Amino acid sequence: MKRIKGICNELAEKSDLYPTYKRLPLPKKVILPLGSFRREMAPLVKAGDKVIAGQRIGEDIEGVIPPVCASVSGKVLEVRPCLGFSGQEILSVVIESDGETNTKSVDENLQRELEDRDIIQLIFDAGIKETDQFYWPLPLRIAKPGLTSVIPSYQPFKTEPIDFLIINGMDRQPGVSVRRNALINREKDLLESIPVLQKVSNAGKIILTVYKDHPVPLDFEQKLKDLGVTILRCPSRYPIALEPLLVKFVTGRDIPLPMGNSRAVGTAVIDAITALRIVEAVKEGRISTETTVQVSAFSLGVNVHVTVAEGILLEELVEQLFPSLENLSKAVIGGSFLGYAQQNFKVPVTQEADVIVLQNADELSLYSNQPCINCGFCVRYCPMMLMPNELSKNCEYNRFDVAEKNDLFSCIECGICSYVCPARRPMVHLFRFGKQEILASKEES
Amino acid sequence: MKRPEFYVSISPHVHSGNSVQKMMFQTLMALVPVVFAGWFFFGLTALKIIFISMITAVVAEFLWEKIMGLPLRIGDGSSLLTGLLLGLVLSTECPWWMPVLGACVAVIIGKELFGGLGNNPFSSVLVGWTFLQVSYRDLMSSFVVPEPQFLLESSEYLVDPPLVVLKEEMDMIADVPWMDFLLGNVPGEIGTISVIAVILGGAYLLFRRIITWHIPVSFILSAWIIGLIFWLTDPEAYANPVYHIISGWVLLGAFFIATERGTAPVTVPGMILYGIGCGALTIIIRTWGGYMEGVPFAILLMNALTPLLDRIRPRAVGRVKKIA
Lengths: 445, 324
Hints:
The complex is a heterodimer. Chain A contains 14 helices and 21 strands. Chain A is an alpha/beta fold. Chain A has a 6-stranded mixed β-sheet with strand order 1-16-15-21-18-19, with no helix packed on it. A 4-stranded antiparallel β-sheet of chain A has the order 2-10-9-6, with no helix packed on it. The two termini of chain A are 42 Å apart. By secondary structure, chain B is mainly α. Chain B folds into 2 domains: 20-140, no CATH class; 162-309, no CATH class. Helix content of chain B is 56%, strand content 0%. In chain B, helix 2 (32-42) crosses helix 3 (44-68) and helix 4 (78-88) crosses helix 5 (97-109). The model of chain B has no long low-confidence stretch (mean pLDDT 88). The chains are: A alpha/beta, B mainly alpha. At the A-B interface, helix 7, strand 19, helix 10, helix 13 and helix 14 of A face helix 1 of B.
């Protein structure tokens, strides 16, 4: 285990409101983005078509990323580029719900003994989306050597065995408890996922990581041990749940960045929510159409886990939860450290979003355009061992070549440098700007 | 400023609440025991010099920014700190115009000409001090015997500051009780003599995480080790290394001056090398040089090396030579 720098979760948590649970009725309209801005898919439906929940509506032509399935039954209104919550326009399918709750029928063949190929195919077909951004999509990451050939045209690391399969039960950032709650409330499902994962990945060791101060029930721990799972208690420090640092902490190996392919060091990381979705897909043949997001509005004293149909518009979600909301100053999808502030409330809340933070004017943190004072706080806290002070100045004054040479692309944009900066410089903004400029100039040449 | 109603910004959307003002204010707080020790041993004259120096520093920065049409940044308190530190490294014998001159040079030449806080290559306090030291050497090197306000008795046995004694009358130093060194009951600059007060302040800075331990510890350790080497070669000619550390300047320099923002390296290996360099140069200057303080010039020389030391960067996570 390696020491990872960072900030204490408790310091950054603004409130310890105990979460409540809620389930929202079916939304009137959902928007389902096809793929991500990095890789778009081809739609399988057109405007006017009738779809039922669970029906496949878009797939990748090359078959690399899992398909997208409808989350509600109803009529396709249109297929057009829509704003996603990360700020990019992605080709999306807009579905108007007809209020019916029928879903795609469960595959009859599921009762028989499944082979590894079938399992990986089921996982692929389920269209599971993940909160973290990984180099490979889920099925490719966890498939054991030889099994990746199920996915056509892409057979990387056929010979790379998985030494460690890390199930990440730690939430990505302070103030979030989505994964922790999933661990506590659905321990049975999680236990069921272990044999499936073991079968598919043939991992040398399966490790479940939890925060030290979030204890797991003792009998649960014993059951996990019986299944051969090691429970690793990690320090409650902020960016440790992000993939490169998690792998470094657990295995001591460095994922080569900027590529970020964990398979190159024989490691696969999935989060607890994904493990549960895998169980749903494999055991029940169910395609997950719902997502649970934590909505935190600490100024209103609200911290609620809502289960909604995927693709619900932020507008509708906020309206249902807070019928009379005033003084909203900022709406962030994706958490206070890693999330994106929204300017348009007509964005879909998809499975990639784990938390929505609503801030009022008092909670805002404002940036300033002061020059760097070279105090070195960011260097002290940067978990990736970069020198954010120099990188930010290089990006600010257009010296992108120097920034790239000094590992700008290793930055995981965790935001700790900005968090501790006494001059309140917008560090992450400068890094993203620098990365974009470098990528743009590479594309030109 | 009226706040707009709706905000969109880049992540992160929370902040630790740390600010330049807070950092400067906490450093000022840390210097309170040192100022108290100055008043205790030298009376109101010490406070007068510190006060003049602080006021001048703030006024100088204000005027400079007004004249040059720069945004006003005196609110961040960095000039106040420069003024206070400059007052602490002067002798109570200085006439009133010396802190004025020193503070102006420190703030304008030492800091503002380079672009303000964080951009100055050399410690602004020491720029002001060096200017005074080189220009008015006689005034700068006359000291009074401290007269404690209560409890303690004046130390009549030392007329010269221990730093001069170290150089010229080696055997005399052994007669001084340790307690007087630790409390600061010896002649010298207002803020450099009291070991206990400076350590209290330094501990506060460390506790508040304004500074890390790397620079002070490596500074003091390296001064002690280099001093020890000299002492072991010839105990008659060279002083005990402990005297070098407790006789003034080293502790104030290690905790407060060498760690000034922007003039010190920010990486761990850089900070340790910087501290080692400061400590070694201090003893070398004291042993072979003409300036008995040693510390200011050692820090200034190491300041000049800071950009080089900052090139020793840590290996970034994920930077592997061979991509498997």
